[in-house]
Amino acid sequence: MDISRTVAFHTLGCKLNYAETSTLSRMLENEGFQKKSFDDIADVYVINTCSVTDNADKECRQLVRRIQRKSPQSLVVITGCYAQLKPKEIASIKGVDLVLGAAEKFNIVSHLKELTKGDSTKISSCDIEEISGFNSSFSISDRTRTFLKVQDGCSYNCSFCTIPMARGKSRSDTIANVVTHARELSEKGVKEVVLTGVNLGDFGLNGAENTRGSRRGETFYELIQELEKVEGIERYRISSIEPNLLTDEIIAFVAGSKKFMPHFHIPLQSGSNHILGLMRRRYKREWYADRVAMIKSLIPHCCIGVDVIVGFPGETEEEFEATYNFLDDIEVSYFHVFTYSERDNTAALDIRPVVSVHTRHERNKILRNLSYRKMRDFTNQHIGQTREVLFESRKKEGMMEGYTDNYIKVITPYREELVNTIAEWAI
Question: Which CATH number fits domain 6-126: 3.40.720.10, 3.40.50.300, 3.40.50.12160, 3.30.70.20?
Answer without folding.
Answer: 3.40.50.12160
